[in-house]
Amino acid sequence: MTTLSRTGAMGRAPTTARTTIDSVNRFKPLHTSAALYAPITPPPPPPPPSSSSSTPLTSSPPPPRSNVSSRPTKVNHKPLPSVPNTLPILLTSVILALLSWTGFTIYATNKEKLSSSIFKSVLTTVKTSPEISSLFSSSTPVVLKRETWLGGQPRVQGAVNMMQGRVDLAFQIHPQGEQDRTATVYFTSIRESKHSPFEIVRFVVVEDGTGKVVSLLESGGFRSIDVESGDIV
């Protein structure tokens, strides 16, 4: 009997303990769960507009900003400087350039004619001709008249163009020491075609003072020009 009572007491002990724990838990405050599931308080609404601002809001754009200062700016009005007239200087420079180019061209072409073989042959024939000595009535040798504006060179007019088949020369001579007594030599020779020989059509000396003419074409018997040497034959 005693054994059963002890067994029954031992068997009821756990039930009583569980009941006691449940009772304790039932009355225990649930502060942990309340803290976890507490609602979030929303922020307070914005304050209403101030009553002192009675101007209604409009959608008009703000006035444009200007870069011009509102303060008056002092402007100094100065007269423009006078521009010098460069037209006379420009015209003078152009004229001088043209004159220089023209003078250089004349000098170069004249130098070329002086150095041609046909001119040297004509001049030698004139200097050695007794008819020219009789024309000046002087035994002094005949020389070329030199021009100061050409740098002391004789002036030879005309052209020497062997390729086109035309030689036309004119120059002045005078007895040595007598520059006032001058005569002009005219020499012209042409050929009809490239393979034709040159034909001398004029070879005369005209005294400038008296107008007396001496034809070296008739007295010398010249008829043509040797193309290779440039001598008159």
Automatic annotation (TrEMBL):
Q: Does the keyword Transmembrane apply?
A: yes
Region (Disordered) location: 1-22, 35-82
Feature: compositional bias, Pro residues: 40-50
Residues that span the membrane, as ranges: 87-108
Annotated InterPro entries? Coa1, Coa1_fungi
Gene Ontology cellular component terms for the protein in this record: mitochondrial inner membrane
One biological-process term from Gene Ontology?
mitochondrial respiratory chain complex IV assembly
Print the keywords alphabetically: Membrane, Transmembrane, Transmembrane helix
Tell me which domain of life the UniProt entry assigns to the organism this sequence originates from.
Answer: Eukaryota
Say if the entry is tagged with keyword Transmembrane.
yes
The protein in question is named: Potential mitochondrial protein
